[in-house]
Description:
Distance between the termini: 130 Å
Order of helices and strands: HEEHHHHEEEHEEHHHEEEHHEE
Radius of gyration: 40 Å
Helix content: 25-40%
Amino acid sequence: GEKSVNNIAFIGEFINSIPDMCFLLTSNGSTLDVNDIACSALNFKKEDLIQKPISSIIHLFNQSPLSEIINQLDKEKRLYLAETQVVTSQGNNIDCKLFLSKIQTNEQTFLDTYCLIVRDISEEKKKELDLIRFSSIAQTTINPIEITDPEGKIIYVNDFAEKISHYKIKELIGKHFKKIVAPESLKTAISTFSAQLKGKEVKPFELILKDKNNNKIYLKTSEQIVFKKGKIYGIIGIATDITEHKQLTAELSKLIKDLYLLQQIGQELSSILDLEILLQHIVRHLKESLNYERAAVALVDNKTNSLVVRAAEKPYSRKIQSR
Length: 323
């Protein structure tokens, strides 16, 4: 009597010391005891949870009867593991992992008694789902995505980053980000990376990378620090390729500069009456705008094929041939 009472008390203390939901079950599926964590997680009173058939709260035991699982467990003499869902009093499903084992004891009270531990893995499942969603988005987006570890080494790039950099993904993994940043952007890249690791807010910024062929890639980048179990896992950068925009802006700037130059030339030439002086001005502007070492202009009479006038920025030794 007293020994049995002490054993029952010990078992009660034992299952309450387990940090997961825990049920003591008989071979026919009746619940003998349940710990406080299970009552709290499933929002049941202890007496109500003990009276409920285990198959009514654990989906797996609806599909595979507990008696069959126990027979298999007794034959193979090992721990039974499975993933399923457990139902709360509100009808919500919690993803869980089951650990079922037979209690080894000579105590008559606990002969043919089994310990079922139910571990909540809903957070892990959510992270797995988030990872699947991220992977799906990352591989289909037209934005280059890169993750670097706290040391600055690349641990992930998506397909579009591979496409614009002309590197293979396996060539980028393990490479330090400084190896692909253009010299003129290196200071910016290092300072923003350091600021992120210190927890400072970093606004979107422009960055110039070098592709495998040493061509420049202009990016507008947003970065975010990634944590795992409370520690810094890395920094994820999502960028927009603005290379074409930069090229168009440079071409437009050059065009505006050329137009302004033509306007200046026009203003100068409109006040010149002497043809030779006029041609000399044209030659000078041609040389400056086209960045030539020397330039010359010759006018030929179309009827007589004779040289009418010529002008050169520097003495031009090559003979002018008439047509």
